[in-house]
Amino acid sequence: MAENTKKTGKKKIPPKAKKNKIEFVKDIIKIVNDNDIAEFRYEKDDIKLSIMRGHEVVAVPVVTQLSSVSPVGVPAAQEEKIESSKPVENANNYYEIESPMIGTFYQSSSPKFPPFVKLGDRVSVDTTVCIVEAMKLMNEIKSGTNGVLKEVLVKNEDAVTEGTVLFRVEAD
Question: How far is residue 112 from each of residues 30, 38, 78, 89, 135, measured CA to CA in Å?
């Protein structure tokens, strides 16, 4: 078997290549938004990109192996509620809340407001823990579990990708 494959036969994507693909997709999205392009499609190798603006539901499937989906092209004021990704437990048996998309992490809905949650706060399944902005769409991220917030792993306004661990919660 080639050294660049796993037992499954899928090619590994080196971290640098993943970042380059993410940057490529971000650049395309920016160009589409800056030029008011209504619809854009791109397919090459393992990248499939489809952007449609001005529709009720808009999603951008990004690099297939990364399984990213980012909403784009809807008005900035619109908010979408997103459930956090499925539970992941680490060595401390904490529930990890991950970003479901590429975007910018915000601890509060406005710089003038306090963070949605802080260390030691009790959260429930439907507690909004942060916002991830993806192309001017504010996506509320829910905790997905009941418990106590033990770790905040990103800083306000940090760029995040799909799967970035944002918080760790000691689940009840």
Answer: 28, 34, 19, 33, 22
Which contiguous run of DSSP H or E holds residue 159?
strand 159-160
Torsion over CA of 89, 90, 93 and 98, rounded to 10 degrees? -50
Tens-digit pLDDT profile for residues 29-57: 788 778 877 777 777 776 777 776 654 44
Task: List alpha helices for 3-85, DSSP H.
Answer: 15-34
Phi, psi of 70 (to 5 degrees): -130, 125
Q: Among 47, 33, 21, which Cα is nearest to 134's?
A: 33
CATH architecture group of domain 79-171: Beta Barrel (2.40)
Sketch the domain layout of the chain as residue ranges: 15-70, 79-171
Picking from 123, 115, 116, the residue whose alpha carbon sits closest to that of residue 171 is: 123
pTM over 0.70? The answer is no
